[in-house]
Amino acid sequence: MWDGIGDFLAMGGHGPWVWGSYGAALVLFLAEVLLLARRRQRVYRMIRRRARAAGMSGPSMNEGGGA
Amino acid sequence: MKRRNKRLGIVVSALAGLGIATALVLNAFQDALVFFITPSEVMAKTEMPERNFRIGGLVEEGSVIRDPQSTEVTFRVTDTAESVTVVFDGILPDLFREGQGVVAEGRIGPDHVFRAYNVMARHDENYMPAEAQEAIERAGHPGDAAGGY
Amino acid sequence: MSARPRIRWFRFSSPPAFHALVDRLVPWLWGGAALLAVAGLYVGFFVAPPDYQQGNSYRIMFLHVPTAWMGMFLYLLMAIYAIIHLAWRVRLADVMARSLAPTGALMTALALWTGSLWGAPTWGTYWVWDARLTSSLILLFLFLGYLALHAAATDREKGGRAASLLAIVGVVNVPIIYFSVKWWNTLHQGMSVTATDAPSMAPSMFAALLLMTLACWLYAAAIGLRRAQVEALERSADAGWVRRVMLGETDAGTGQHDGDPGSAVLERGRH
Question: What is the ipTM of this complex?
């Protein structure tokens, strides 16, 4: 269907529009995934830190489990 | 339980009220919400509007005349019932074709000629390979692809 | 918010059950999304032929249409969670709504961006203020406004409620976007794919569109659920259940382990 990689990238003269679209999508999806992964690590670290701090000062957690 | 359902009732009825209000507002501003008007709507007016507006329809088959000396092009926009002559001097979009959708911005003169300062192609909702389009034309339904008006 | 055994469909509004559900589901959702996206891109770029009018620029559609649908769908879902949040004061519903908003905004922004890049060669313009494009831009602003209300409030409860209210009010915009091309003359074309008629495109083009749409669904589900999980953990970082599910503690208050008690859980749960 395509006559080599150059022909594929040219997209029949519509390359900038096509790759501008797919490139933006790739960047935004990757950014969203990475930002969420970082936020997740940050939250996990915070919880561990707080659990450790609470553990030092004795058992003081509520059994009921709030939301 | 009771209070929860009451709150749900309030939310739902507020949403219903909002929906009705929105429908009424949109209905009232109907004219402002259309992006273009059709040749039939233009011709139905007793006096031509003296301001810029957009006219949309299909480029009439066989109506495109390109001026050999300049970039000026003349064509007719049709909605199959009425048609309006459009004069445009500038660069047409790639998808400008006879039988295809078009929207022109400009104003209409007393001679009922629409002088456009901008022409946009309007794509229809059909996507097909070239071979399929040729098959349709062979079968004798050339206009089928340009629906939606 | 503990589990209420009598109302079964509220089972996953119990945070620990929800946490476990997300950990189980998300890897499968990622895998599915990746597979479907690869398949969709393959069909879209190597099987589907060029369009008879547009040539190859129509291939933007495989990104534009799924993201546009996803933006509208995520808004509807967010509004439903907002109703549950306001009517029943289920906090996990607020967590869900808040977690869908960034992805909804991203999908809508992508739909606008790709649509603009498709419009330039096709229509001859990047942007027009027709009903479809304008209402889609409003959708993006609604998502951003929702997030801003959440972020601006100093009191999380109040901010969440104001944001939920905005989400519910803004839901009228979704049918306007969807039906705008039917109700008014727009530069944007009519619907190529509807629930009732056969799609007005070649089968291979439709196959690519379908695969990309499914990939988009699974992506949004994976990221939305994961974000909701993180958000729930963050909001109740000190709750007993959080420490139990995260640190593997069987009993509250036994936080003193040697080394790093959370690392094993972290490794398992990382996507």
Answer: 0.83
